Amino acid sequence: MLNARITALFDDYASSHQHPTNRLTHKVAIPVIVLHIVAMLDWVRLVSLPVIPGGVLTLGQVAWLLAAVWYLRADLKLGLIVSAAMALCFPLGRMLPVWAVIAIAVGGWLVQLAGHAVWEKKSPSFFTNLVHALVGPLFFVALITGDYSLKPQQLAPSASRA
């Protein structure tokens, strides 16, 4: 069962993601965006440390660690899933050429922004609440696992959005 704080964040996030097509675009775009963010942050080398795989601490690893702490504090089960998925972005991102990571970034953001502009008719929620940049991946994992369910009023778009 989700705690009240996370449920409130999910309810707030869901209010900007009511159109089913917008939610579908996010199910595609969020993993792609997470991949490109992790991959690009992993390009920034901070310090050489022999105890770290590869011997270099990167900005991506620091960002992953901070995000993982936030996710695990939010919800242990969902946090483990999201943190593990993010960790898989490191080897995948390192296998991809730079041009592919950039193409993935552009494509992912275009798909996500189209979801808001074309179907939702509302700006992305992280424009008003930056925490929602972290909430998005957790929200969709919670939907997939059944740990969070959309309320009936969140399932169907209003007549003005159809």
Structure report:
With 162 residues, the protein is mainly α. It has one domain. 69% of the residues lie in helices and 4% in strands. The chain is built from seven helices and two strands. The protein has helices spanning 4-14, 20-42, 59-74, 76-95, 98-120, 132-145, 152-155; strands at residues 45-48, 56-58. A two-stranded antiparallel sheet has the order 1-2. Helix 4 (76-95) packs across helix 6 (132-145). The longest helix is centred in the N-terminal third of the chain and has 23 residues, at 20-42. The protein is globular, with a radius of gyration of 17 Å. The model has no long low-confidence stretch (mean pLDDT 90).
Summarize the structure.
This protein has one domain (4-150). Helices cover 69% and strands 4% of the residues.
Shape: globular
Q: What does the average pLDDT come to? A: 90
Largest beta-sheet details: 2 strands, antiparallel
Outline the low-pLDDT stretches.
none
Helix content range: 55-70%
**Rounded Rg:** 17 Å
Order of helices and strands: HHEEHHHHH
